[in-house]
Amino acid sequence: MKITPSSRILRMLGEIEFDEWQCIAELVDNALDDFSEIERDGIPWAGGFKVSVSLPSPKAKLADAVVKVSDTGRGMSYDTLEQSVRAGWSSNDRFDKLGLFGMGFNVSTARLGRRTRVLTTRRGDDRWIGVEIDLDRIGDDFEAQDIEESKTDPNEHGTRIEISGLHPDRADWLRRNASNLRETLGRTYSWILDNKPFELWVQGQRVRPRLHCRWGDDRAVTFGHGASAERIPAYIAIDETFDPAEACTNCGNWQVPDKGTCEQCGGDRLTLRERRIHGWLGVQRHLHKREFGIDFLRNGRKILQWDKRLFDWKNPNDPATGAVDTEYPIELANQGGRLIGEIHLDHVPVTYQKNAFEYSDRGWRATIDYLRGVGPMQPEKAKRLGYPVNDSPLAQLYRGYRRNAAGLRCLIPGDGKGPIHDETRRWAQLFHRGDADYQDDQRWWDAVVNHEELSKAAKLAKAEGAAPYKPDEAAVLDALGVAIGESDTSGVTSDAASLTGQAPASVPEPPAVKPAKETFQERIARYRADSTIVPELTRDFGIPRVGDLRVETRRLSTVALCDTAAQPTPVLLVQGPGGTGTAFVDPAHEVFAKLGADPTELLLVEIATVMKVKAESDLTHAQLIALLRAHCLLDLAPRMDVVFAQARELLSDVRRMMALRIDADPGRAFQYLSPDELTATENEMIANGQVTHTQALGQTGEFLLYAPPLFVVRLLEEWPKAFMDGHVFAGPYASVSSLSARRLSVAKVSGYLNDIATLLSFTAERGPQQLQRTRLSIQLLADELVAEA
Question: CB atoms < 10 A from the CB of 287, how many?
Answer without folding.
Answer: 22
